[in-house]
Amino acid sequence: MADPIDVPVETNHNPLQPPESYFVPATDVYETADGLTLVAEMPGIKPDGLAVTVEENILVIRGAPGPEVSDGEVLLKEFTAGEFYRAFQLPADYDTERIDAGLRQGVLTLTLPKSERLKPRRIEVKVE
Amino acid sequence: MAMIPWRGRTLPVATLMSLREEMNDLLSRFWSHTSEPFGLAEWSPALDVSETDDAVLVHAEIPGIDPKELDIAVVGNTLTLRGEKKSEAEQQGTNYHRVERRYGAFTRSLRLPAAVDAEHVTAKAAAGVLEIRLPKREEAKAKRIEIKTD
Fold first, then answer.
1. Do residue B128 and residue A32 have CB atoms under 8 angstroms apart?
2. Could you say which of B5, B101, B127 has the minimum Cβ distance to residue A88?
3. Do B114 and B73 lie in a common domain?
4. Which value does ipTM take for this structure?
5. In chain B, which residues have their Cβ closer than 8 Å to the Cβ of A26?
6. Interface test with B, best of A22, A29, A46, A54 (most B CBs within 10 A)
7. Which of A72, A110, A117, A127 counts the highest number of beta carbons within 10 A?
8. Is B52–A28 a contact, with Cβ atoms under 8 angstroms apart?
9. Strands B78-85 and A84-89, sheet pairing
């Protein structure tokens, strides 16, 4: 039986609370006619080591790489290791219900479509 | 509308700590001769290098780079990595809020700690991390010398 002391105490875990130490992934944010795109670099991160949450219009990206497998004697260490965390306050113009997320080649791409009511709409003028 | 990174309800101590880290970072970048301050230097991938009894292992962070477009060369005991990080979103009508990723061509060379067999170098990539395995040549491998006792 597991020692009860070893059980991590994580009741009432707040997703907005950043970890004690973390690195900030470099992120590009751009807007197109259809919506907002966030592109964050996180080499070495696998989908199961990543969590994207939206709460009260705050988008939180956080995660950690898997356990490090080091072979032999380390001669050079430049990788940023450990947990990462990034939070963005989203403008209200985006539909947070339909966020599309993809992780490819160590790059996370999030696409937020513009709310339907904010898309430019052409109003027909009726001529009587 | 401008996007403002949300910093959360941090304690004043945490704010001071992050300020101190930023100052340290700024100063170290300012005094560094190898890179220009304020992130103006060209991008090149971060490397991790380790050595085992029979091989040298090089890991490189290459987020967003197609591994097929990389050029890996071993000449003598120098490993050279060449490639280019391209932006996917250079289209018209794109309004940037934030550009933090760095793009461009890079060349990175590394002197290897041991003589390697260039014919048998292997490379694979997963999740934006490239792994190059360079097997050592027989004469460079660590050998255990048995001591004879009479």
1. no
2. B5
3. yes
4. 0.74
5. 100-102
6. A29
7. A110
8. no
9. unpaired
Token pair listed for A27:
């992120």
In chain A, what residues touch B59 (CB-CB under 8 Å)? 79
Range of the domain at B133: 42-87+103-140
User: What pLDDT, in 10s, does the model give residues A65-103?
Assistant: 877 766 788 888 888 778 999 999 888 888 888 899 999
H-helix or E-strand containing A54? strand A50-55
- What DSSP state is assigned to residue A24? -
Contact B1 A91 (CB under 8 A): yes
pLDDT tens, position by position, A25-68: 999 999 888 889 999 999 999 999 899 998 888 899 999 887 77
CB contact under 8 A, A105 and B127: yes
Nearest to A16, CA basis, from A88, A76, A80: A88
**Number of domains, chain B:** 2
Same domain, B51 and B72: yes
- Assess contact for A73 and B50: CB atoms under 8 A: yes
> Which domains, from first to last, does chain A contain?
17-64+82-116 (2.60.40.790)
